[in-house]
Specification:
Chain A has four helices and no strands. Chain A is mostly helical. Helices cover 31% and strands 26% of the residues of chain B. Classes of the chains: A mainly alpha, B alpha/beta.
């Protein structure tokens, strides 16, 4: 019985992951051009996967307003609405 | 339930074995149960798309058609020409791509049949597909510039597809006597990597300044304006005064023909006999685009800005340099960004859904010197059937920024290269 439940949970998790990853929110897929998706390797650019949602939202809003200076993020953040920033942040926060 | 679990594991092992076998696409097909997507072209666009398809929906059976065992990246190849980097740092294999359960067909595609949907490979094998993604990059438009053909390119390299041509140009520069004239000719828009000719001019000027300081570099341009122009010209005035001269279209920069035997570039205003000549010729979408009927009279491929599906052929998507992507430049970053949007859209379409409206990003770094980087960025969304700039976003590095900013961008440029090549090939 235990194995049945475990398998069922595993199946649901796989199904959920498939649905969630098929359509990232608008703009989210582009971030990994610069932000490394793998934990290994070194980069001065922040890894986004698994990062706190509120932290990503604040960083994007501060880049957009000019409260935080960036090299390219100040220019990129201006292309995103609050709703888009929220969706992207939630998507990355949910990743491992 | 235990049996089911074992069944799942068994499938995984079989699929992995099929991928490792390499150029045996039939074996993977025999095992296949999910929808089939064939991706043609293993550059930044194609490799990224193949991987993103598997990530979007692991049921999709993906075949990547690519004749080369090794990919040689163009970004940073100007640093190879300038002697700052070795070509091996530009090269990547497809082993890790294959490990993602992607079958690599190590051959080229020769024909596309829309009904029934199948692609013919050079070895005669026909691969049926449910959706086809073409990422063929560019081809040189041989003969568009009179005198510039494949034989001429061995004397006056284009070095616009990285590899042997990159090394040829570097060797010519190394062999040149101090005091020689180097000429670059830059084409009219559109072409691969809009800031590329000017980064190349910068890094060749850096090479000449440090190794052959009596030499001179002239850029003959078929345009009056170019990407990051203000930043490049300010840096040239600071770093390479008297060494690098840019001649725009309006001052006679348009090269109308070349003579490879004497390394002479002819404009409406005169002749320039070079010791080393780098001809960046007019370009078009890679050949399979024409064969598949997805290229229009411009030589490039009109696409739907939401799905990257061809506006000329249903079921075929075009990404990367070959696509007419509106305001998006033909860059590796753009190709990778488009690849992921296209993969998500293809997965959704195959599952019977409606793809959502995407937003895309581009970032292009250029080196003006080894420790001097500048960038341009943009954000794009479908508008009126095209990919258009999101108003108020994007732009170039600030003018008059301190040297630390330029140095930081040079570091970020290298970090970008490591990250994007890891995503596509690593």
């Amino acid at each position: 019985m235990r194995s049945v439940v475990a398998a069922a949970i595993a199946y649901v998790t796989i199904a959920a992951a498939t649905v969630a990853s098929a359509e990232p929110p608008a703009g989210a897929a582009a971030c990994s051009g610069c932000h490394p998706s793998a934990a290994r390797g070194s980069s001065p650019v922040t890894r986004l996967a698994g990062r706190d949602r509120a932290e990503i939202v604040k960083a994007m809003q501060d880049f957009r307003s000019g409260a935080r200076t960036g090299t390219v993020m100040d220019r990129i953040a201006k292309g995103f609405t609050d709703a888009e920033i929220q969706a992207i942040a939630a998507w990355y926060a949910a990743q491992r | 339930m235990k049996a089911t679990r074992r069944h799942f594991l068994g499938l995984g092992v079989t699929a992995t074995a099929a991928a490792v076998l390499g150029p045996r696409p039939r074996s993977a097909r025999a095992q296949a149960t999910g929808p089939r997507v064939v991706v043609v072209g293993g550059g930044f666009a194609g490799a990224s798309c193949a991987r993103a398809l598997r990530h979007a929906d692991p049921r999709i059976v993906v075949t990547l058609v690519e004749p080369s065992a090794t990919f040689t990246a163009c970004p940073f190849s100007n640093a190879v020409i300038g002697g700052l980097r070795e070509l091996s740092a530009q090269q990547f294999t497809y082993e890790r791509v294959a490990a993602d359960n992607i079958t690599i067909a190590r051959t080229s595609a020769t024909a596309v049949d829309a009904q029934p949907k199948s692609i013919t490979l050079a070895d005669g094998v026909k691969l049926p597909y449910d959706r086809l993604v073409l990422a063929p990059g560019i081809d040189i438009r041989w003969g568009a510039l009179p005198g510039y053909d494949e034989a001429a390119a061995t004397q006056m390299p284009h070095a616009w597809r990285a590899g042997e041509q990159t090394l040829l140009l570097r060797r010519q520069l190394e062999a040149m006597d101090d005091g020689g004239l180097v000429v670059i000719s830059a084409p009219a828009n559109p072409f691969r990597c809009p800031p590329g000719p000017y980064e190349r001019a910068s890094l060749i000027a850096h090479f000449l300044k440090t190794k052959k300081p009596k030499s001179k570099l002239i850029v003959l341009d078929a345009k009056d304006a170019f990407s990051k122009q203000g930043l490049f010209q300010a840096a040239w005035a600071e770093l390479y005064p008297g060494l690098l001269e840019w001649v725009p279209l309006s001052k006679g920069g348009n090269v109308t023909s070349v003579d490879a035997a004497t390394r002479t570039l002819i404009t409406d205003f005169g002749r320039h006999q070079a010791k080393v000549a780098n001809v960046i010729p007019p370009q078009k979408a890679g050949r399979i685009a024409e064969v598949a009927g997805v290229a229009d009279r411009s030589g490039w491929c009109p696409i739907d800005p939401i799905t990257f599906e061809s506006k000329l052929q249903a079921g075929i998507h075009v990404i990367g340099d070959a696509a007419i992507a509106g305001a998006m430049p033909k860059s590796a970053f753009a190709a990778n960004s488009q690849a992921k949007v296209c993969a998500a859209a293809v997965a959704t379409l195959l599952a019977g859904g409606t793809p959502s409206i995407p937003k895309l990003i581009n970032t292009c770094y250029s080196l003006v010197a080894p420790d001097y980087g500048i960038s341009v960025a943009g954000v794009y969304q479908p508008t009126g059937g095209q990919l258009a700039d999101v108003p108020g976003a994007g732009g170039v590095s600030p003018s008059g920024a301190p040297r630390e900013t330029r140095k930081a961008e040079a570091v970020l440029a290298e970090a970008w290269f490591r990250t994007i090549t890891a995503e596509a090939f690593g």
